[in-house]
Amino acid sequence: MEQLTIYTAMVGELDYAEFTLPAIEAYCQRNGYTLERITDPPQDKRHPTWQKLRAAFLHDFDRHGTCLVMDADMLPLPWAAPIHKKLSDSRLSLTRIGLSKRARKRFTELEISESYWFNDSLIGIPPSMAAFVRDTYTHTRDAETIPYAEMAALCRKLERDRIPSAAVNVISGRFDCLVQKPSQLERTDLLRLHFLHFAGPDHKKLELAKAASKRFYGRLARGSA
């Protein structure tokens, strides 16, 4: 799996990607990974984040095996470890960070059991789970899971298909460290972490991504000195 392909969906104007994308590219280059960007908007009126699941249609699983989908609002730190070692070649890989009060309420309304409350900021898709992800995309209407779109859809389908939650390969939270305010960029344990994941509205993500890029990469954006 060392020849890993990472997909990231960048649909529309994502200002923060000016700062996160160079870090993602540098991480892929360091580890010999291939980076593919999904930029086409949905053909229907569903939320753009659904396009992350298009990786299951685009990737050649027969030739390249497991792939990883990474949110565009994540920033790999310069010392981040190779993630392919944390993925499974037979099980879906997801993270499990705490859900907000609003998300917990919505997941409960959707009758998703707490053991299935996963996060899809990182999705490792092995060949055996490609059809599962494609079915989730094809057979779920956006209105069913608003405002948590594909994340809630994946969790709900796991449970409805009676795939044990314990069968999901959980990626370490060190690869999905939620950052909601600038002071968190001063954490004393940063050397133990791998990826930062910016939370909040897009203007807040932009502020955080800009500050993190300057702090950890010594530049403000692509092409800056």
Concise account of the structure shown:
With 225 residues, this protein is of the alpha/beta class.
How is the CATH topology named?
Spore Coat Polysaccharide Biosynthesis Protein SpsA, Chain A
Chain-averaged pLDDT: 92
In helices, the fraction of residues equals: 25-40%
End-to-end C-alpha gap = 35 Å
Which secondary-structure class do the elements indicate? Answer: alpha/beta
CATH superfamily: Spore Coat Polysaccharide Biosynthesis Protein SpsA, Chain A
Supply Rg: 17 Å
User: Which class in CATH terms?
Assistant: Alpha Beta
Order of helices and strands: EHEHHEEEHEHHHEEEH
How many runs of DSSP E, i.e. beta strands? 9
Shape label: globular
Tally the helices: 8
Total tally of structural domains: 1
> Beta-sheet strand percentage?
15-25%
Unreliable residue runs: none
Give the strand order, joined by hyphens, for the main sheet: 2-1-3-6-5-7
Oligomer: single chain
CATH architecture: Alpha-Beta Complex
Summarize the main sheet.
6 strands, mixed
Could you explain the architecture of this structure?
- With 225 residues, the chain is an alpha/beta fold.
- The protein has a single domain, classed as Alpha-Beta Complex (Spore Coat Polysaccharide Biosynthesis Protein SpsA, Chain A).
- 33% of the residues lie in helices and 16% in strands.
- It has eight helices and nine strands.
- A six-stranded mixed β-sheet has the order 2-1-3-6-5-7, with helices on both faces. A three-stranded mixed β-sheet has the order 4-9-8.
- Strand 1, helix 1 and strand 2 form a beta-alpha-beta unit.
- Helix 1 (17-31) packs across helix 8 (202-217).
- The longest helix has 16 residues, at 202-217.
